[in-house]
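To assess whether the prediction recovers the assembly geometry, we first specified each molecular entity separately, as shown.
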Amino acid sequence: MADAVRSGARAPATDRLTLARLLRAREAGVFIALLVLCLFLSFATDGFLTSLNLLNVGRQISLLGIMAVGMTFVLIAGEVDLSVGSTYAFSGLATGMLIIAGWALLPAIGVGLATGVAIGLINGVLSTYGRLPSLIATLGMLSIVRGAALILTNGQPVTVNARNGALPGVLQSFGFMGQGYLFSIIPMQLVFFVIIAALAWMVVAFSNFGFRVYAVGGSAKAARVSGISVNSVKICAFVLIGVLAAFAGILSMAFLPSGQAGRTGVGLELDVIAATIVGGASLSGGEGTILGTILGVLIIGVMRNGLVLMGVSPFVQELMIGLVIIIAVGIDKWSTRRTN
Amino acid sequence: MTEQQTPAPIVEISGLTKRFPGVLALDRISVDFRPGEVHAVIGENGAGKSTLMNILAGDLQPNSGEIRIDGRQATIASPLASRAAGITVVYQELALCPTLTIADNIMMSDMAARSAVSLVPRDKMRREARAALARLGMGKLDPDTRVGRLSVAEMQLVEIAGAIRQRARVLVLDEPNSALSKRESGRLFDIVRQLRGEGVTVIYVSHHLKEVLDLADRITVMRDGRTIETLDNDGLSEDRLIRAMVGRDLDTAAQWSLQPEARSDAAPIVLSVEELTADGLDGLSFHARAGEILGIGGLPDSGKDTLGEALFGLCSRDGRISIDGKELRAADPHASIRNGMTLVPADRRGAGALLAMSVADNVVSASLPRFSLAGFMRRGAVRREARAQVARLDARISHLGQRLATLSGGNQQKIILGRSLVTNPRVLILHEPTRGVDVGAKAEIYAILRGIAGEGVAVVMISSEIPELIMNAERVLVLRNGRISGELTGAGINEEAILARAMAS
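The predicted structure of the complete assembly is given in tokenized form:
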């Protein structure tokens, strides 16, 4: 499976599917690690291998996954976005406040997504025409957007419910987006993640835009000389992750359904980058696939879930996640150096 | 050959001038390139060839002068505009995406021309890339291979394949064969001839005179930022080309080498090198005596650029290197310094200087143990030594705490020289000692080097600037293909002799 997808996403493609080739695909390592982890957990715990738990894992990883898909574009393009946690908070809170103010669902969500677009545009313009390293530009935006969210909410928690003024019909649909189940079993958050990941996979692996993102991240000079507008490709990638972070924030607001500017999504950008990196994207650009990112998100999600099921303390969980990041990227670097 | 009629030029350059701060890189040059010709551009290092190519590529803008394309006045404002005008420049530094496949790279311009919201036609790309490779006789390369895995030569051919596919009307090959094997360059020449037959103009920048004579229809010789002459390749010889390339007026330069006393012939040998082999070097043996300035010259791919690092131990090497009879076994810069060897590298910004640190810190940075006590810097001693070096080298600084980055190139170079001198060297190796240094400071640095040699240090000066070798060295070794192709002494050191040994076959 890994290879079939890979070949779309510029792998040494062959028409024949051999085991050796499967193992050589870049996602193979992550996939095997995930498989081993799942096998171990299904023996070590009672609750892991139940459809209820697996769907639960699916819901838990969805918001992280939606943002990691966006981050994959940015990392392939050779940039990074540290402001996603703040965007997540700001856009979710903005949509929540509009719903409380009696807005209809779609306009409220539309404005929330528009804030994501705006933040992405600012990030993109600063990192291209503004000539700032994206690490710096988005670090600044991390603070600015967080500050804006605090000002917007006056630091108070925002809770979406009928008592605060939300219209009942709107409240119901909004709640369904975050808490509902498709066919009464599949969490809506997971549905959104799957749709977004599938679309993104097609864009990255098969579209001309996806090709441009790889070209820009692989060598900006080569891309420029070929006539690709490096700046607009990068700005598009930033807008994309801005929108996806905003959407994840809105879903989170719909799920909980509350948020607080000082707490929501703090530090989330690091989880998102970690999952993307574990999935094989590289901070130096030109590398990464949506499939890899999904696997990276799954590894972190399954790991968290498994540790909870095994009753491991949350403190140790943090430590284990850190180890996974270092080991996963370490193995990857080690194995690519060996094959080169 | 083509006496009957001369076709209208496709690119015509007249009165083109490009000025960099302190340097006139192109001085009112004029040259025209005709359709269906192979037009070689030759000249020494610094003659202005690269600047001209960069202007054609749209990377640099001229200060004045005119470029006409197809008879119409044109500005080549960007690399993209250059490509749009049908000009493709294949650089020595390649413009390829190492993370993408060969097919992706060859087809990148096609992808850029299509809508961003279209599908990537992988099969078509693979097919067309394979065809483009086959035209270069590279049909056995798998178009799905990542470019990062290829050899430099293969990458170069991939870039040429991409250029050919785009139906370039003017193909500029900048030193294309420095990385190619004999077989690969043979194939490249076939391609060049084939393209000429199809009406493509090939501008061929090269140091290899034999190839130029084999391949070119016309040859333009550049020197000191001027186009000296454009010759029809009809009955020309390597000698004729070399004579056109030299002719610099050196009478005003005090020629150290022509001074009567051959002072160091009897001096003891300080540096002795036997069978030195490293990347680009193939079994060099030579020596340098106390008080001697030994010049090393050669083309960029002659191995001269790795010699300094190999001697100093910055890269792995084989062979025997000894200083005053004591062999330096491992390739270890620390051991080299301890045993009296020191290097002033060519890349001042990258490898040479601690630009963000002060003058004083730079002066002592190669001799820290002498200036520290129990892990603390002996600030007083540092300042004394720095002050002494600054005075000796006549470096113009405002104070010892000044950051090196704020100094001019010449003064930076003096401070780096000072750092080398603080180590009390027996052998001082300089790589491009006056690169990026203005004329006045150059003369001062030369005087300093003579003074250092006069104190009994063996000075090895590796330089691409032939006048610099002629003015300073008592003996010049010329490298070619990693070997010593000639040794010149005294009055035998002249531009023609050096160029002939560096270039001619």
